[in-house]
Structure formats: structure tokens, C-alpha cells
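User: My advisor asked me to double-check a structure prediction for Probable GTP-binding protein EngB before group meeting. I don't want to rely on an old file, so could you generate it fresh from this sequence?
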Amino acid sequence: MKVNNAEMVISAVKPEQYPDDGLPEFALAGRSNVGKSSFINKMINRKSLARTSSKPGKTQTLNFYKIEESLFFVDVPGYGFAKVSKKEREAWGRMIETYLTTRKELRAVLLIVDLRHPPTEDDVMMYDFLKYYEIPCIVIATKADKIPKGKWAKHVKITKETLDLDPADEIVTFSSETGEGKDLSWKILGKYL
Ligand code: GDP
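Assistant: Sure, here is a fresh prediction for Probable GTP-binding protein EngB from the sequence you gave:
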């Protein structure tokens, strides 16, 4: 898919604010700062459409990016932020859970993890949550440019083992710097369209 036309449509906290176009949606889940916005930007060839934030956990809304009038990327606020109150964290949890478990347009979740490190407890929890609700999941192991190519296979293996990845689930080695994994990611998304 060659993408030229992308626009941010809406930031939503409640279902009434979700777009009503009926287009397929792919949600991006991952801890703050893992590279979710950079992933979106690379996928759509933009430098800074999806805001890359230097303040982890600041994005507390679901951001819907409409791509080519054919699908939405939904940037889910990152988990694993320590600085918010328990009340905020609970509200965040409810918002994400409502979206992920009730949204008819959701085709799959892209779980973004850092290839350099084993997935965190939060990553594992999110993966288990998706499996429990039988929500299709694609693992994107990003920041691959930060480790030598010769070590990718070893890191992919650790990622698979830590998540206890279902052999049916796909994992893509990705880099927002080099574009590694971009074509494969579009190919996999294509299966859900
Ligand atoms: P988000 O909070 O998950 O949306 O993370 P961002 O996309 O804002 O990225 C956080 C930081 O990691 C930024 O400084 C990015 O430039 C950097 N980053 C994200 N993806 C990559 C990547 O693939 N390679 C490298 N080298 N840096 C990345």
C-alpha cells in the first residue's frame, strides 16, 4: 500500500467520540516511548503526523488516524507510566478495555515491543489480554536498527519466548529509522482488510 493521504481525525475518550465511518481499524498498543507514533509515521511516510512525544504517558486519548479513506490506525495511550494517579490509571484501563473489547471495526492489534529488550510484564499482560478476548494480534518488534542484524534472530527468539507467542501469531522485525519491516507489515495488515 502506497500511502499519500493521512489525516488525524479525532482524539476520543468515549465510544460516542469514535469515528462512525465504519472503516477497518488497527490499534497500536505498547508502553510509552516504545515507538508507536514513529511506527505510524514510517508506515505512512510522514515525518511528524503522529506526534512523537518526549513525555512518556502524556497521550491519554485514543487517536484515530484515517489513512487513504480506507483504514484507521488507532494510537492507544502507552501503558507503564508511573507518574499518574491510581484513579487516572483505572480510567485509562477502562477506556482501553472498552475500545478493545467492544469495537466492531477493530481488525487487529499491533503490539509494539522493543526488540532490544525482553517484553515487559505490561507487554505480556497486554498480549494475554488480547489472547483471552481472541483479538487478533501482530507483534511489531521495533528499534531493530539499534542492534546488529546478526543479533536479530536471537532477540526475536527471546521476544517469542517471553510472550509465549502463539505460533499462529506473526512477529515483524521493524525499524522506524530504516523502514525495515514496513512492507511486511503492510502485507500482513492487508490480510485483515
Ligand atoms: P511512543 O511514545 O510509543 O509513540 O514513542 P515515539 O514514537 O514517540 O518514540 C519514542 C522515541 O524512540 C523517539 O525518540 C523516537 O525517535 C525513538 N524511536 C522510535 N522508533 C525508533 C526506531 O525504530 N529506531 C530508533 N533508533 N529510534 C526510534
